[in-house]
Design a protein that fits this description.
about 325 residues, six-stranded mixed β-sheet, globular, alpha/beta
């Protein structure tokens, strides 16, 4: 474990279960859908956990909601702040609004217009910054120095990770005999939360995280056994551009069975298939797990029962990739 982390810094399955109870009134329990045409195409039985139908259009609302609902009254009165390319910012803005708390979100200038607009629509104060992690963190530090707001990190936060894990908890409750769960990985909030939840099921399915080739720091970190931050990531899956977090890497290292990579072409193909065959809107990041399956990036799955977390559906309709 990293020298800066202790066991107390890491969430557990018990934390995921507590998060599920804490946030139950707020997120939607999203459906698990199937598609016989995609089963035939892939040679497996697919079960899609549709977090693209979640409030704010992404799983991020679960973690943000758990973080905000965990605040003391005094902390909630100070408000919350974060940096985000869109989904987490919108999620935190809505979670804060439901708690009656102020919210500030630092957003990179190149974030999709639809996501920036959503952050503002949910009532957050939007502060623009340059599109680098250093600029995001610096601008956020400046904002909270003035306001005293509580920082809720997009993924490297035990409360956020536990909240994200509630999606997989629901998936394995609804489909208890899965062989494998495929999940996208960027900062690692969803992947580490998913692994915590799935590992609580005995015997649990394998958990495989999927990452774009153009933003593969999680894959490289997993292979090296040490956290290697991303350098100039470039992918259509804008929700997966961030580097793997410290807590997230430790949980992924312990609980994820494998990480695989997929090409941009495979991501676009999978996204288009989901739109065409299932008639649902899924963003590129959400299509990444199906891309790995269709591209043969995960071996030995023939005939198995596969859970896929469709992480979100926030797409700029003026910039579709086909």
């Amino acid at each position: 474990m990293s020298n800066s982390l202790s066991e107390a810094d890491l969430p557990t399955l018990a934390d995921v279960r507590r998060a599920a109870a804490r946030i139950r009134p707020f997120p939607r329990r999203t459906p698990v859908l199937t598609a016989s045409s995609l089963d035939a195409l892939s040679g497996v039985k697919l079960f899609f956990k549709c977090e693209n139908f979640q409030r704010v259009g992404a799983f991020k609302f679960r973690g943000a909601c758990n973080a905000v609902q965990s605040l003391s009254p005094a902390e909630a009165a100070r408000g919350v702040a974060t940096h985000s390319s869109g989904n987490h910012g919108a999620a935190l803005a809505l979670a804060a609004r439901l708690r009656g708390a102020r919210c500030t979100v630092v957003v990179p200038r190149n974030a999709p217009t639809v996501k920036r607009a959503a952050v503002a629509a949910y009532g957050a104060d939007v502060v623009l910054c340059e599109p680098t992690l250093e600029a995001r963190e610096r601008t956020l530090a400046e904002a909270v120095a003035d306001s005293g707001q509580v920082v809720v990190h997009p993924y490297d936060d035990a409360r956020v990770i536990a909240g994200q894990g509630t999606a997989a908890l629901e998936l394995v409750e609804d489909v208890p005999d899965l062989d494998v769960v495929l999940v996208p990985i960027g900062g690692g909030g969803l992947a580490s939360g998913t692994a915590l939840a799935v590992r609580g099921i005995s015997p649990g399915p394998r958990v495989v995280a999927v990452e774009p080739l153009g933003a593969d720091d999680a894959y490289r970190s997993f292979q090296a056994g040490e956290r290697l931050p991303s350098v100039a990531p470039d992918t259509i899956a804008d929700g997966l551009l961030t580097s793997l977090g410290v807590r997230n890497f430790e949980l992924v290292r312990r609980h994820v069975d494998d990480i695989v990579r997929v090409s941009e072409g495979a991501i676009v193909r999978a996204m288009r298939l989901l739109w065409e065959r299932m008639k649902i809107v899924v963003e590129p990041s959400g299509a990444v797990p199906l891309a790995a399956l269709l591209d043969g990036a995960v071996e030995g799955l023939a005939g198995q029962r596969i859970g896929i977390v469709l992480s979100g559906g926030n797409v700029d309709l003026d910039r579709l990739p086909w």
